[in-house]
Amino acid sequence: MHQLMGGSVKFDPSNMVLTAGATPAIEILSFCLADQGNALLVPTPYYPGFDRDVKWRPGVDLIPVHCRSSDNFSLSITALEQAFSQARKRGVKVRGILISNPSNPVGNMMTQDMLYSLLDFAEEKNIHIIADEVFAGSTYGSKKFVSIAEIIDSEYIDKSRVHIIYGLSKDLSLAGFRVGVIYSYNNNVLAAAEKLSRFSSISTPTQRLVTSMLSDKSFIQEYFETNRNRIREAHDAFVEGLSELGIKCAESSAGMYCWADMSGLIRPYSEKGELELWEKFMSDAKINITPGSACHCIEPGWFRICFTTIALEDIPLVIERIRRVVESCKSSS
């Protein structure tokens, strides 16, 4: 994490709890910060796995904070205020905000000013912030990723409210190794998380392999640079191919996916129409993409398409399959 951020942040190992991937890290923090029936605010669209990680066993609810395409699905404090106030009117206790930065599925990143505003909001409402930063190193745009860890050195900020999640599955392509970490400034949370992590331990063989790999700093740096270049190349090729079909994507700077607007292809303009288009991609094009409704997107017709699961030379084949579906939708309408 220190190397990923160019040495700008020093991380204290005593503030870390290792877990078998980011999934149990989110679940553990849900157990630590909230009781059953409490809630976390989460900007939409959001990673569908959050529903599983936060709701299934911890029993914590997720309250969507709806963001819209007109703002490139960026979060606003006004939207947070509204969601918080509505939850309080319903008698729901909000215990924190769960963000993914860089965003999954949109691929945009929070600005430094927005992170400061989030911290102010959390302090005002007496709630916590869980920052999922698993795509921190998978950037390809001109914008620099800013970790929340970089901006909390100010004296007035209550660090005990901030909890960061990271893992090796995305930036180092080690999904099957199941290596994640909770980084918290709250001693009580760390103590509880350490006990709960006993049920999601990283295997000893994995620890030995990963320790050896991470110790080779020159390799890690070279890997990050190579990976970023490859993601950028795949992203540009895929987005260009979609653009030629009349499909626009949200502006993004990170991640292994694009957030594509196919609202013009759905009939009716609703979740039903969106799911029918998703089924058409599955049955006719043999392509599985994530419908926006699975990410709690308030606007029908948006889809997340992962472009790093295929080789660069196979992108034209996928674009051709998408073209056939697009033409079929246009002819039928």
UniProtKB/TrEMBL annotation:
Q: Name one GO molecular function term.
A: 1-aminocyclopropane-1-carboxylate synthase activity
SUPFAM superfamilies with a match to the protein in the record? PLP-dependent transferases
What InterPro entries would the database entry show?
A: Aminotransferase_I/II_large, Ethylene_sulfur-biosynth, NHTrfase_class1_PyrdxlP-BS, PyrdxlP-dep_Trfase, PyrdxlP-dep_Trfase_major, PyrdxlP-dep_Trfase_small
* E.C. numbers: 4.4.1.14
Record keywords: Ethylene biosynthesis, Fruit ripening, Pyridoxal phosphate, S-adenosyl-L-methionine
- Its annotated pathway? Alkene biosynthesis; ethylene biosynthesis via S-adenosyl-L-methionine; ethylene from S-adenosyl-L-methionine: step 1/2
Q: Which residues form the signal peptide?
A: none
Gene3D superfamilies membership: Aspartate Aminotransferase, domain 1, Type I PLP-dependent aspartate aminotransferase-like (Major domain)
Against PROSITE patterns, the record matches this protein to: AA_TRANSFER_CLASS_1
Per UniProt, residues of the Aminotransferase class I/classII large domain are 4-322
Chemical reaction(s) catalysed: S-adenosyl-L-methionine = 1-aminocyclopropane-1-carboxylate + S-methyl-5'-thioadenosine + H(+)
Its family? Belongs to the class-I pyridoxal-phosphate-dependent aminotransferase family.
On assembly, the entry states:
Homodimer.
Q: What is this protein called?
A: 1-aminocyclopropane-1-carboxylate synthase
Gene source species: Lupinus albus (White lupine)
